[in-house]
TrEMBL record:
Cofactor requirements of the protein: FAD
Limits of the RsdA/BaiN/AoA(So)-like Rossmann fold-like domain: 5-393
The entry's keywords: FAD, Flavoprotein
SUPFAM superfamilies: FAD/NAD(P)-binding domain, HI0933 insert domain-like
Pfam families, per the entry: HI0933_like (PF03486), HI0933_like_1st (PF22780)
Keyword Flavoprotein appears in the UniProt entry: yes
Coiled-coil segments: none
Domain called RsdA/BaiN/AoA(So)-like insert: residue spans: 186-340
Highest rank taxon of the organism: Bacteria
InterPro entries: BaiN-like, BaiN-like_dom_sf, FAD/NAD-bd_sf, RsdA/BaiN/AoA(So)-like_dom, RsdA/BaiN/AoA(So)_Rossmann
Protein name in the entry: Flavoprotein
Keyword Flavoprotein in annotation: yes
Length: 395
C-alpha cells in the first residue's frame, strides 16, 4: 500500500493552502480530490474575481456554536499575510467595499498561486475518498483508487453546499467514524423562499433591487445587515438576505427595512402638507423603485388613493409596511445555491490552535468542514487559509 506522511483530503481552498504551507517541509504530502480540477469553488467565487479575504476579519464575523473558536487561528494568519502572497505573485487586486478584497483579473490567478505554492507535494485528482480508519498506528484512507496509508490526515473536504461543484459531506462521515459530533449542517448565505400567499407581493417584483436593512432576533441580540436586497420569483436574495440567511432557522421571523435612509412616515406627512392631487403611489415612487411603490399601494388597497386624503394612521401603516416588513420565509434555496454550510464538525472536539482532533491524535479538520462559518465578504476564504496554516504549523 502507498504510504505518505501527510494525506490531505480535498483540494479546495483549505487543502491547497495547507499543502502549500507543508511544501518543502521534507515530508511526503499527498492531496486527494475527486474533482477533475483543483479549487473549483475558488474559480467561481466572487463572480469569477474571488473575494479572497476581508480586512475586517475578526472572530465575531463568524458563526459557530463555539463562538471564540476561530480567534486563535485567525490571529495566527491574518488578511495581510494573504495579501502579501497575492502581491508577491503579482496579482492585481482592489478593495470593493467593507474591506472586501477582489482580484482585478480572474479568480483563476488565486488557484494558480495556490498550485505554485504547493510544488513538491503530490496532487491526485479524480480520486474519491470513501472512508478513513486507523490500522496499527497509521491511518488508512479508503479511496476509489485503492487504500493509501498516512501517518497524519487532514480533512479538508468542505461542506455540503453546491453538490454540482463536488461537495459531498464526506468529511462529516469521516469525523463521525472517529466519534466526533456534528453541529447539524444547514445551508448558509442562501436565497430565502416564501410561501405561496407571501409571493403575491414579491413575485411581480422579481428583479427589483434596493438598499435595505435585514434583521434577525430582537433587542440587543438582534443581528442586522445593511446591503442590497433583491426580489426573486421565489422570495428574496441579494447580499443583505444572504447574510441574514445564515442566522435564520425555519420558523424564525425576519424584519426587512426597505427604506433605511430615513423616516418614511415623516416624509409622507411632509409631502401631504405640500398639497396637490398626487397619488400616494406616485409619492412613494420618489423614494422607492416604482414597481415596489405600486405593489405596496395595491396590497394595502390604496392603488388609487390620493395622498392628500390619507390620515396619519394610513400613512403610518404604509410606512410600516415598507420600513418594518416582517416575514417568515418557508425555506431557502438549499444546498443547490448555498455559498456555505453553517454547522459542521463540532469545535468542542478540535484544538483551536492546531485544528487537531481532541479524540484522535494525527487527525486534523480545516476549512468549511468545521463548525465555523464566515459572513459574506471574503471571510470564508480567510478561515480556509488561517485554519490550514494553523494545522500546517502544528504538524
Ligand atoms: P472546498 O469546498 O473549497 O473544497 C473541498 C474539496 O473537497 C473540493 O475540491 C471537493 O471536490 C473535495 N471533496 C469533497 N468530497 C470529496 C470526496 N468524497 N473525495 C474527494 N474529494 C472530495 N468565500 C469567500 O471568502 N469569498 C468568496 O468570494 C466566495 N465566493 C463563493 C461563491 C460561491 C458560488 C460559493 C459556492 C462559495 C463561495 N465562497 C466564498 C465560499 C468558499 O468557496 C468556501 O468557504 C471555501 O471554498 C471552503 O474551502 P474548503 O477548502 O473548506 O472547501
Amino acid at each position: 500500500m502507498d504510504h505518505v506522511d501527510i494525506a490531505i483530503l480535498g483540494a479546495g481552498a483549505a487543502g491547497l493552502f495547507c499543502a502549500g504551507s507543508l511544501a518543502g517541509s521534507g515530508r511526503r504530502v499527498l492531496v486527494l480530490d475527486h474533482a477533475r480540477a483543483p479549487g473549483e469553488k475558488i474559480r467561481i467565487s466572487g463572480g469569477g474575481r474571488c473575494n479572497f479575504t476581508n480586512l475586517a476579519t475578526s472572530y465575531d464575523r463568524f458563526l459557530s456554536s463555539t463562538p471564540r473558536f476561530a480567534a486563535s487561528a485567525l490571529a495566527g494568519y491574518r488578511p495581510r499575510d494573504f495579501v502579501d502572497l497575492v502581491d508577491r505573485a503579482g496579482i492585481a487586486w482592489h478593495e470593493k467595499t467593507l474591506g472586501q478584497l477582489f482580484c482585478d483579473g480572474s479568480a483563476k490567478e488565486i488557484v494558480s498561486l495556490l498550485l505554485d505554492r504547493m510544488r513538491g507535494t503530490e496532487l491526485r485528482l479524480g480520486v474519491s475518498v470513501t472512508g478513513l480508519r486507523q490500522d496499527g498506528g497509521r491511518f488508512v484512507v479508503e479511496t476509489s483508487a485503492g487504500p493509501v496509508s498516512a501517518s497524519q490526515v487532514i480533512v479538508a473536504t468542505g461542506g455540503k453546499s453546491i453538490p454540482k461543484m463536488g461537495a459531498t459531506g464526506i468529511g462529516y462521515e469521516l469525523a463521525k467514524s472517529f466519534g466526533h459530533h456534528l453541529i447539524e449542517p444547514r445551508p448558509g448565505l442562501v436565497p430565502l423562499t416564501f410561501a405561496e400567499q407571501d409571493l403575491d407581493l414579491s413575485r411581480p417584483l422579481a428583479g427589483v433591487a434596493l438598499d435595505a436593512v435585514t434583521s434577525h432576533g430582537s433587542g440587543k441580540s438582534a443581528t442586522r445587515f445593511a446591503d442590497a436586497v433583491l426580489f426573486t420569483h421565489r422570495g428574496l436574495s441579494g447580499p443583505a438576505i444572504l447574510q441574514i440567511s445564515s442566522f435564520w432557522q425555519p420558523g424564525d421571523e425576519l424584519r426587512v427595512d426597505l427604506f433605511p435612509k430615513g423616516d418614511l412616515a415623516a416624509l409622507l406627512r411632509e409631502a401631504r402638507g405640500q398639497g396637490g392631487r398626487v397619488q400616494l403611489r406616485t409619492t412613494l415612487a420618489r423614494w422607492l423603485p416604482a414597481r415596489l411603490a405600486d405593489a405596496v399601494a395595491v396590497e394595502l388597497g390604496l392603488a388609487e388613493a390620493r395622498l392628500a386624503d390619507q390620515g396619519n394612521p394610513v400613512l403610518d401603516r404604509v410606512a410600516a409596511r415598507i420600513s418594518d416588513w416582517r416575514l417568515k420565509p418557508v425555506g431557502s434555496e438549499g444546498w443547490r445555491t448555498a455559498e456555505v454550510t453553517v454547522g459542521g464538525v463540532s469545535c468542542a472536539e478540535i484544538h483551536a490552535k492546531t485544528m487537531e482532533s481532541r479524540l484522535q491524535p494525527g487527525l486534523y479538520f480545516i476549512g468549511e468542514v468545521v463548525d465555523v462559518t464566515g459572513w459574506l465578504g471574503g471571510y470564508n476564504f480567510q478561515w480556509a487559509w488561517a485554519s490550514a496554516e494553523a494545522a500546517a504549523q502544528a504538524i
